[in-house]
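Continuing the batch. This is chain 6 of the set; chains 1 through 5 are on the previous pages. Same settings as before, nothing changed between runs. Recording input and output for traceability.
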Amino acid sequence: MFSRDKWSEIIEALSSNWFRTLLTAFGVLWGIFILVILLAAGKGLENGVKQGFGGIATNSMFMWTRTASRPYKGMPKGRQYNFKIGDVAALKQNVPNLKFVSPRNQLGGFGGANNVVHGLNTGAFNVYGDYPEIIQQDPMDITSGRFLNHNDIKENRKVAVIGEGVRNEMYEMGEEVIGTFLKISGVNFMVIGTYKKKGNNGNAEEDQKEIFVPFTAFSQAFNMGETVSWMAITAEDNSSITKLKSQVFEVIRSRHTLHPEDDRAIGSFDLYEEFSKVNGLFVALKGVAYFVGILVLLSGVIGISNIMLIVVKERTNEIGVRRALGATPWMIRGQILMESVFLTLVSGMAGIAMATAIIAIINNQLQGMDTSEMMFLNPSVDLGVVFTALAILIISGLLAGLIPAQNAIRIQPVDALRTE
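Output for chain 6:
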């Protein structure tokens, strides 16, 4: 099958009319090029959108209190209530597969009154009372100093970790930050670290203007007692927070005397559910890319099939001579199929090479740019896509040559020799 004579015959047959062969091969080249480029573009968009999550633990939900919408056990409709620190331990004990349950309190915020003072500078910033685990749920790069730890929690230390945006607004250029004090709503906190968050979620600038202090010191300084404003809850990697959500709500309802079917009393945002929708969108985009690419490739395959029919007709005399000399139908069929697969593979690989070069150029351009807030990042295709493309090319080549090959073996030696 791989003899030198056969390959010489294949090359001679395809190069006898090189311009026609080139135009035919371009259809397959363009089809596979479009397929790879569409898949790479979809991956680049996916990378950019996922970068917008800033590395946040996507298997998470956020939960806060609302008013009771149903009366229950003598408690009236419209009743206000608050989460308590004891709810955290109850959730960890009664709901399996929870990785982190972080109680959170919050003060101030964008658009509010100035609540932070350093020297002559004042500013309005989000101040969070948190546990150290929050950095696992909402990752950030510590640019200097350190983040909160459990000793800070146990000892009620009035320490703070500030964002680079807070640092830029409250301190002079080059001024030492670590060890200095910020006055937050009249209470002094010592700065022990600075951070920077990444992402393009639409609030990138405000994300750098947050201050994190120990949950216990926050509660003590601002008279929160046992109150928890809201919680960030993350499930284990082998579980879905969406499936555990109902158990979480059940524990909270039982602890705060809420009606078991009161769905409005607890507010929540399921990040995992939203992230799954995004993943579903990109699965659909990949399917569209394959659909469009294969349709374009199919037009090229049809062109190859047509040209092979013409080649078979032009070689009627040759086929007749070979049949007269003892060539079997399978030998004739194999020759035509090999020519078809060879032409398809060569043109397809050229298309893959061209698409790879375009992707490399785009990535090279992106390397010199700040992509932290871009919605397009690192377009690429993996080896699985390449192998899939090769499989498509081989199958396409076989399909393209099948009808011409069948026509070739139907030619009777005597009829073929009479053809001028």
